[in-house]
Amino acid sequence: MAHKMANSTLQRQVVALLIFLCMRDAVCETLQYSISEEMEIGSFVGNIANDLGLDNRKLGIRKARITSEGSAQYFQLNIHSGDVVIEERIDREMLCGQIVPCLLYFEFRLENPVHFYRAEVQIQDINDNPPIFLKKRLVLKIHELSPPRTPFILESAQDSDIGVNSVQNYTISPNEYFRLDVHSGSDGSKYAELVLEKQLDREEQHEINVVLTAIDGGLPPKSGTADIKILVLDANDNFPQFSQLVYKVGLKENSAQNSWVCKVTATDKDQGSYGEITYSFNQVSEKVVKLFKLNQSTGEITVQGSIDFEETRIHEINIQATDGGGLSAHSKVIVEILDINDNSPELIITSIVSPIPEDSLPGTVVAVLNAKDRDSKENGKIICSIEGITPFSLKSSFKNYYSLVTEIPLDREKVSEYNITIIAMDCGSPSLTSQETVRVQVSDVNDNPPLFSQNSYTIYVNENNNPSLLVGTLNAVDIDYEQNAKITYSLLPDEVGEISVASYVSINPANGNMYALQSLDYEKIRDFRTVVRATDGGSPSLSSNATLQFQIIDENDNPPIILYPVQDGASLSSDLVPRSALADYLVTKVVAVDGDSGQNAWLSYQLQKSTDPSLFNIVEHNGEIRTSRPITERDNMKQKLVIFVRDNGKPSFSTTTILNVLLVDGFSEPYLQFSDLHSEEGKDSKLTVYLVIALVFISFIFLVSMVVFIVFKIIKTRRSQEKYASATGNFYDDSNMPKNLIDVNGTGTLSQSYRYEVCLTTESGGSEFKFLRPLLPNFPPRNETVEANLGINPHSQTLCNPVDQEDPTTEVRRGVSRLRVE
Ligand SMILES: *[C@@H]1O[C@H](CO)[C@@H](O)[C@H](O)[C@H]1NC(C)=O
Ligand SMILES: *[C@@H]1O[C@H](CO)[C@@H](O)[C@H](O)[C@H]1NC(C)=O
Ligand SMILES: *[C@@H]1O[C@H](CO)[C@@H](O)[C@H](O)[C@H]1NC(C)=O
Ligand SMILES: *[C@@H]1O[C@H](CO)[C@@H](O)[C@H](O)[C@H]1NC(C)=O
């Protein structure tokens, strides 16, 4: 657009210049004009006629015309007025760009005469172009760690205009990070510098948008903008950060492999690799490495080894998180292991006292135990008990120590050994147990005496035994042990009469075997008793007694001895029988004794030979000789009877005797009268007669007995000396056995005969009636062959049978009784 105001001054300047320079030659003349660009077509540039001083009316005639240089015709000449106007739009920026000045030329030609003039038109710039940024969007990458005042040169804006119309200033939209510095280049052009004013932080704002405005100096100014996008480049300026400083987790012991423990998480605000975190253990013990596994990328911790509460209760795992830039952070995982009841209690016997004496007082400590459990709390709490029922109890002495004590007195004889099973149980759930056996032996104390099976023993010994015969074995039992049960047997000093028992029997102290020391004679000693003592080897020793009753068993070693009729060889006595006697008249009684007893002394009588076998008979079991029939005149006066007496022993002994019987006349009357007196006269006179008769008879028998006794003694002594060198003499002398036996026979004087056996002792000063007992019957021998006489003279022996036979069949026989006097 032209400015009309400026035009006039411009035209005047151009004209003046033309006149001054080029008037001397037509050709040389140069007209100068100045116009603004972008003026409207037809706009006035200058009046060339006026400027050249030509008559504008002659222009047509002279065929005046203008020709632009170049192809484009910007100007046109009005032939009538001589005005040059703009024919075509003139854009200075297109024509000249930045060239200053911008000139257009044209020729002004005249004919008749030919003249041409050169005209130059200076095109003035107008601010018709705004500044333009070639890139409307600028991306600027700035490292976040760039220090403040760092400049960033920005691309300049372009303005086709020149001079002041070109870019004169830059501004940016307000922001907190940058300011803009505008500088002038060496050519005067302006450029802008973005200056960092404040530290960037990508993590806070990773992108900043500002608008850059370029302003030119036109009037009015024009501006152009560009968007600048500032991308803040990441720097590894952020440390990874754990979500927790310390992670606390509980983990059951014995957790399986790959069990989940926990997950640590760290974050990093940085980007990309700077924000990529890898986890690792940091300065952890070897144990932790073995037990736990850490996933480097996820931070998951899992179990790798076997977790044992008893080994380690707390694991501290230091974990490091590292980002791709090498920055790291630390955290700690505290893994608290939770106990589970996986350890059985442990029982340790610290001391044991065995054996213990059975007399230990209740409360005696037998063993000390220590119970342990590696688990903790309830799982490690132990309860100890004894299995079964024992005489022991557990006492808790102090923490987890127990003593095993006796509760009641012990008795080795009942239980000599205890296997005490002690059970330890923890309180976990389920609870675990363990057990230990304490073997306690009970040692013996001598608390039991030896015991015999019976209080008394009866030992039967056959007479005439071998000396040193084993007569029996005693056995006492002591339930104690070993030395305390070692029994020694002994016979207590005792006496049989005046002879010590020790001379009859002895006992083996070790085994209780009893031996006879001498041959025993039933006829001298029938029984004796002594006390045997069993003593154990304890200290002090205990003992017990038992009574020993020795019974000597009779053997048939004595032949019957006939006391009546007396056989002294010299004078054979005769019995008188009245011829008037009827049948069954009691002639006499054969009296025989046997030193033996029982069967061996049961005598039987037989008539072996007689002058007239039909006249007499003998009662087999009592030796009474009676008439079988009445005596006749024809019977011989002298009758001789051979009587055979035999005992019932096996083998049996026998003896014969001869009895002479005289048959006489008129013999029976006085006896009958005598018996009448007995009833009629006074008792005194009758008794006197009896006593006189008895005394006479006794004296007679006594004398005979003494003779027989002496003979017997001599024989016996000789026999004993032959058999046993010692001790026999003693027996005989010391024996308190009755030495005399006298049978009183009232035959012939009494119609009813009473017979008494009288034993007299040599020791007692006077005779004394002790008791009166019935005489036992001598049963007749069975039909056995009569044994031969053993050559012992029956007349030479007189023996007393001091003890009655113990035969339950004992009965009182009429008219026969034995009077024993001691
Ligand atoms: C550029 O513009 C700014 C703000 O508009 C102004 O302060 C400054 O003076 C200008 N500079 C020039 C050389 O005109
Ligand atoms: C870590 O965990 C990821 C995802 O669970 C898994 O793919 C990777 O194999 C694990 N790395 C290791 C070493 O176990
Ligand atoms: C105790 O145990 C021992 C060894 O096991 C065994 O020899 C003995 O017979 C047992 N005693 C009892 C009384 O059970
Ligand atoms: C055994 O007998 C003796 C003598 O008779 C007596 O002193 C002792 O006390 C008795 N002992 C026992 C245990 O009976």
Automatic annotation (TrEMBL):
Localisation per UniProt entry: Cell membrane
GO molecular function: calcium ion binding
Pfam families the UniProt entry points to: Cadherin, Cadherin_2, Cadherin_C_2
Signal peptide: 1-28
GO annotation terms (biological process): homophilic cell adhesion via plasma membrane adhesion molecules
InterPro entries noted in UniProt: Cadherin-like_dom, Cadherin-like_sf, Cadherin_C, Cadherin_CS, Cadherin_N, Protocadherin/Cadherin-CA
GO cellular component: plasma membrane
Annotated region (Disordered), positions in chain: 801-822
SUPFAM superfamilies: Cadherin-like
Membrane-spanning segments: 687-712
Basic and acidic residues bias locations: 810-822
Bilayer disposition of the protein: Single-pass type I membrane protein
Major place of residence: membrane
Keywords, alphabetical: Calcium, Cell adhesion, Cell membrane, Glycoprotein, Membrane, Repeat, Signal, Transmembrane, Transmembrane helix
Residue ranges occupied by any Cadherin domain in the UniProt entry: 27-133, 134-242, 243-347, 356-452, 453-562, 577-672
Role summary: Potential calcium-dependent cell-adhesion protein. May be involved in the establishment and maintenance of specific neuronal connections in the brain.
Protein name: Protocadherin beta-1-like isoform X2
Taxonomic source organism: Microcaecilia unicolor
Gene name per UniProt: LOC115476707
